């Protein structure tokens, strides 16, 4: 006989002996209690087939054993209780000390770590709640061991304490297994997540980081994460039994419970039977005293007979005869199969009496009579509601197509690139010697001033080279800014500009002009793919950035541009570049220019395109406005045009020009109601300072009004000036011009006026410019377009067929035309007439220039007011170079005179 067979035989013998012993125990304990009941032969084997009964029997035996042991040794428990209590509470208290020490260590772990080895040094104070002992415990368990998994160790001490105290709060072996898993893998997981950065070392501990580092070096980062994910997944699968079969079984139980609840809501006979079964099963599970009878007669009955549950009434004991099937069957089979074993369960609670006929003969709900009625459901078709106006516009589009605003000049050809001059190769040449020399000078100078540099990088542009430096830790940015003049002296360069710090970067920029700058021609930027493929409404190309990229902006989104620069620094070339880029992209029907040129020579080249792109007043002969009086009338006419456009947008229910033109193109707006296709209007003022000096508020007010309101209706402003002083560019104008372009100016004060920061005074000229879009300042090299190129472009457009005349602005009747000397009309007097009269009478000086200064008026309006004062009899006639005679001596007489005029 082999060893394996002998071992199996020995185990079978032990099993049988244990079974016989258990049977005798059950028979001895339960058989006397059943003597008062009618029973046949008792079969322990059949009774033990029920798992519940075995459980009850084993529990009863164990309780009796424990009672017997306590009776035999009453003093043993008292002797062992004191050390158990002592050691159990000691473990629990130590767990609390560990937990609080760990928490306090994590809050100040950097300081506590340095104090961990100085336990006996009294001069050093600890920030831990348990002092240096807490520092030592936190450093040993957390930093030098397993990180925050040390809290699991404190938890295990609590488990040990409860075990010693015989408090079954946790299952020991299961708790130890879970804790060991987390102690092993949690530090490694935290080490893989943090990589030791920041507080990562204290989270994973030395153990977690070293194991993670070793695994990462052996199997790589991907292999490390695969090991972690597979381990965690296996843990949860084994712990929560996440097998497909178990999940399916749980879902089946949920479905059966749902079906049972639904059936319980249905009034049928099956419900009452199921309710009785559930009630009886609950009684079986809750009965503390069990008496078992084996009815052999019921075993002999066939399984196909139906039996109803019989409920007998006894006082005060209720006996419930229920059905228990030995084999598990489906829900439908339980209704028809006959029970093979009946158990009489004796319970003390009172159960409502249910008669068998009530269980089987319960009223069954039949279908209602309305089931025979035919029920038909129809879904109403979706009706597309179209207004009459939309229908008419759709019919017009189907008949004539979309409105094409280019039909009037259908054969107009856009300018070609051949009109612009090609200046040869414009690629940036890299001079390594110059770059290395400048780098060494910058590094050496900063080192002399104790400014350390960690890194330096150079970006070469058309005109300047940008050196980006990363200072060492502890270096103040202000200390580098102060060295701007020293760097310029050391490099022997003009226009050193320091950007500290650079927007969006952790570097400091130093812009150094190149010895041999590269020209940026207009042809190169117009021919770029960025400009040719743009979808901007009003694309404006300025030139190239420091990184040699073409820079473009949308004038429709700026929405207005303010330009400033000293004479000869490229301001007029910049205006020509803007106008050229717009002419290359927009059709004459889409764009109109209103050009104001006090110099009379800068914008006169564009007079050839008057019938294509320019706009003017109806009674004006020249579209390029040079007269100050006509400038005032043109600006006021633009304000009228703006108001008219707003009325059109209001009637068309549109918010901006783009939506309005789209509706008009789709023929949704009727021209008979005044609607028309609205082109963009760009007002270009070459020298704004001259207008302010000659016209004052008569120019400033309409300019400010257009800047505030005109962007939504497609009117945009480009205003240029030589000296951006505060009396020229006032606060009201600056607030409405967020986009600004600054060429080189004379002083830093002018730079602050135009850009709100310095830098424009450090430019090198010749198209070198700064562009401010409201967020950041960009340094650009403006594209160069020469006068012959502009002439060729204007001739190419002017030779083609154009409109009958220039675009006509609304007519504006000035106040000068309505006021004449000698025929004073009180109803047509100027709004400042009375205030001017008080100034003249109080000073007794009839001077037009004084009215200009006091009322901040232009010469024309001040002269008109003086003519009205002469016509009304307040001042005398013109007396050459001398001031006019004041005919009213005091203010009291003047007030009486003005009162008579009002009446």
UniProtKB/TrEMBL annotation:
Membrane topology: Multi-pass membrane protein
Compartments (UniProt record): Cell membrane
Regions crossing the membrane: 85-107, 140-161, 173-194, 214-238
Swiss-Prot/TrEMBL GO biological process terms: cell division; chromosome segregation
Binding-site positions, ATP: 565-572
Top-level taxon of the source organism: Bacteria
Name of this chain's protein: DNA segregation ATPase FtsK/SpoIIIE, S-DNA-T family
Annotated source species: Chryseobacterium indoltheticum
């Amino acid at each position: 006989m082999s060893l394996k067979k002998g071992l199996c035989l020995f185990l079978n013998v032990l099993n049988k002996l244990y079974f016989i012993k258990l049977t005798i125990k059950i028979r001895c304990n339960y058989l006397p209690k059943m003597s008062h009941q009618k029973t046949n032969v008792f079969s322990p084997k059949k009774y033990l087939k029920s798992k519940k009964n075995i459980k009850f029997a084993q529990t009863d035996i164990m309780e009796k054993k424990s009672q017997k042991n306590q009776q035999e040794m009453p003093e043993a428990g008292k002797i062992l209780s004191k050390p158990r209590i002592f050691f159990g509470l000691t473990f629990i208290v130590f767990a609390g000390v560990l937990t609080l020490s760990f928490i306090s260590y994590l809050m100040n772990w950097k300081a506590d770590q340095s104090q961990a080895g100085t336990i006996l040094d009294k001069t050093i104070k600890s920030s831990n709640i348990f002092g240096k002992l807490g520092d030592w415990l936190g450093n040993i368990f957390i930093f030098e061991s397993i990180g925050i998994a040390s809290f699991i160790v404190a938890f295990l001490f609590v488990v040990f304490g409860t075990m010693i105290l015989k408090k079954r709060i946790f299952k020991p072996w299961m708790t130890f297994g879970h804790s060991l898993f987390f102690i092993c893998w949690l530090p490694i997981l935290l080490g893989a997540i943090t990589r030791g950065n920041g507080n990562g070392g204290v989270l994973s501990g030395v153990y977690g980081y070293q194991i993670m580092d070793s695994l990462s070096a052996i199997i790589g980062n991907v292999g490390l994460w695969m090991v972690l994910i597979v381990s965690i997944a296996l843990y949860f699968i084994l712990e929560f039994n996440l097998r497909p079969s178990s999940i399916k079984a749980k879902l089946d139980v949920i479905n059966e419970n749902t079906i049972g609840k639904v059936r319980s809501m249905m009034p049928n006979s099956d419900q009452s039977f199921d309710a009785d079964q559930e009630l009886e099963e609950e009684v079986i599970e809750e009965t503390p005293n069990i008496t078992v009878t084996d009815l052999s007669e019921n075993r002999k009955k066939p399984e196909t007979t139906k039996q109803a549950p019989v409920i007998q009434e006894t006082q005060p004991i209720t006996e419930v005869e229920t059905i228990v099937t030995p084999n598990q069957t489906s829900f439908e089979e339980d209704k028809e199969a006959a029970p093979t074993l009946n158990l009489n369960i004796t319970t003390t609670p009172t159960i409502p009496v249910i008669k068998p006929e009530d269980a089987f003969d319960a009223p069954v709900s039949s279908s209602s009579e309305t089931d025979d009625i035919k029920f038909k459901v129809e879904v109403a078709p979706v009706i597309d509601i179209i207004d009459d106006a939309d229908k008419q516009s759709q019919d017009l589009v189907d008949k004539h197509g979309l409105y094409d605003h280019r039909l009037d000049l259908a054969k107009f050809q856009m300018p070609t690139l051949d009109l612009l001059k090609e200046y040869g190769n414009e690629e940036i040449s890299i001079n390594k010697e110059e770059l290395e020399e400048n780098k060494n000078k910058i590094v050496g100078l900063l080192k002399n001033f104790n400014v350390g540099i960690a890194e330096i990088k150079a970006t070469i542009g058309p005109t300047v080279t940008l050196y980006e430096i990363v200072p060492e830790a502890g270096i103040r940015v202000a200390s580098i800014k102060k060295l701007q003049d020293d760097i310029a002296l050391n490099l022997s360069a003009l226009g050193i500009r320091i950007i500290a710090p650079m927007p969006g970067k952790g570097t400091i920029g130093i812009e150094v002009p190149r010895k041999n700058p590269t020209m940026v021609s207009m042809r190169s930027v117009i021919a770029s793919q960025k400009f040719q493929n743009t979808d901007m409404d009003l694309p404006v190309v300025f030139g190239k950035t420091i990184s040699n990229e073409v820079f473009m902006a949308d004038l429709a989104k700026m929405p207005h541009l303010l330009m400033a620069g000293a004479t000869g620094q490229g301001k007029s070339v910049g205006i020509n570049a803007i106008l050229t880029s717009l002419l290359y992209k927009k059709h004459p029907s889409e764009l109109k220019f209103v050009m104001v040129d006090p110099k009379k020579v800068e914008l006169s080249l564009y007079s050839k395109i008057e019938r294509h792109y320019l706009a003017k007043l109806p009674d004006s002969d020249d579209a390029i406005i040079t007269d100050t009086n006509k400038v005032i009338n043109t600006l006021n006419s633009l304000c009228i045009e703006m108001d008219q456009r707003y009325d059109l947008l209001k009637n068309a229910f549109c918010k901006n020009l783009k939506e309005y033109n789209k509706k008009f193109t789709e023929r949704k707006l009727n021209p008979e109601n005044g609607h028309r296709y609205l082109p963009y209007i760009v007002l270009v003022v070459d020298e704004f300072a001259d207008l302010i000096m000659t016209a004052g508020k008569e120019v400033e007010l309409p300019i400010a009004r257009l800047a505030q309101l005109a962007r939504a209706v497609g009117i945009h402003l480009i205003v240029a000036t030589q000296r951006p002083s505060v009396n020229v560019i006032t606060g009201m104008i600056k607030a409405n011009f967020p986009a600004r372009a600054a060429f080189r100016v004379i002083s830093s004060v002018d730079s602050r006026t135009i850009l709100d920061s310095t830098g424009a005074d450090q430019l090198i000229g010749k198209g070198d410019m700064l562009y401010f879009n409201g967020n950041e300042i960009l340094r650009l090299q403006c594209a160069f377009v020469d006068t012959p190129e502009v002439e060729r472009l204007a001739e190419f457009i002017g030779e083609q067929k154009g409109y009958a005349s220039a675009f006509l602005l609304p007519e504006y009747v000035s106040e000068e035309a309505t006021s004449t000397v000698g025929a004073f009309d009180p109803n047509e007097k100027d709004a400042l007439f009375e205030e001017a009269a008080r100034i003249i009478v109080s000073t007794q000086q009839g001077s037009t220039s004084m009215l200009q200064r006091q009322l901040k008026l232009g010469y024309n309006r001040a002269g008109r007011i003086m003519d009205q004062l002469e016509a009304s009899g307040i001042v005398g006639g013109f007396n050459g170079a001398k001031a006019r005679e004041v005919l009213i001596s005091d203010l009291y007489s003047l007030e009486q005179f003005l009162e008579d005029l009002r009446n």
